[in-house]
Amino acid sequence: MTVQTTIGQKIGAAIAAPISWLAAIVDAPLKLWQRATGTNGMAAFFLAPNMLIFGIFVLAPFIINFLYSTTSGNAFFLPDRNFVGADQYRRLLECGSYLDPSSCREDLFWKAVHNTGLFVVLQVALLVVVSMITALILNREIVGRSFWRAVFFFPVLLSPVVVGLIWRWILQRQGLLNSMLYQFGYQPTEWLTDRFWAFAAGVTVSVWAHMGFFTLILLAGLQAIPRDLYEAAEMDGTRPGRVFWRITLPLLMPNLLVVIILALIRAVQIFDEVYVLTGGGPGTSTLFLTQYIYEVGFASLLRNPGLAAAASILMGAVLVVLTLVQLQVGRRNEKKGARE
Questions:
Q1: Which of 17, 172, 230, 334 is buried most deeply by CB count within 10 Å?
Q2: 331 or 321: which carries more pLDDT confidence?
Q3: Architecture of the domain spanning 102-339
């Protein structure tokens, strides 16, 4: 045994000794707790910190928000507000026709609902298609594949506010895009002040900002598909389109369902990048539910925290339904996989 080995062992023992003593000190009360409460008690002990954090930052705010939704007035403190029961919910849901926001008592709420519904349909459909195409391309043996994967994922790392500011600089009347179009002889387009183009810009920017995350999920699913299946299909002379519909898509379906549900939940909550980009305008063309809640509860001079809380509870109910659908689909897929 060399001198260096002996010295190393002594140093290791000196470092390990305090750790062992500390472990023994912590282990003693844990053993006593386990003897007194059993296995369930130990589980509760380790879950307690997480449950405490959940209670403080999730459960308590939800309860407070629900209490606010049963009150009226513009005061912020609950003792100073008037209890009105379900009046705020009735106010939001009072409509002559839910397809015509102008016939509703809270027309801005229903305009935001309609805008959000249209945004969800267009954004999720486009996001899934673009993410799928990008994942299929990045799954191939192309030059600089790792570089391109990083490029497509990079926007996910940006703050939504930064995303909105970048695209506002590009799309404003004197912005980069109009400058480029002018060089080719085209007249400037009002990308952010025209109702149609502003809404289209919101959808496009949102897809650009989030597609990297969903591409990553689909790419992981594609890489989990056995290569033997593709080799067998190639030997049989199967056309690429048939390979996609018969092999790739069925095996990718669990990942695709996760992408769709997560994209739906994210789209319903859209706010930050579109708010920075258009501010909800022009008019109410890009007013979405989260912005409506924010403005009614905080930004408006005639703020109504109770009405904003009721709207957020209704939006939360939609998100709960989407989450339950995701869980149900996941369980069904697990059972189907177990049977197969």
A1: 172
A2: 321
A3: Orthogonal Bundle (1.10)
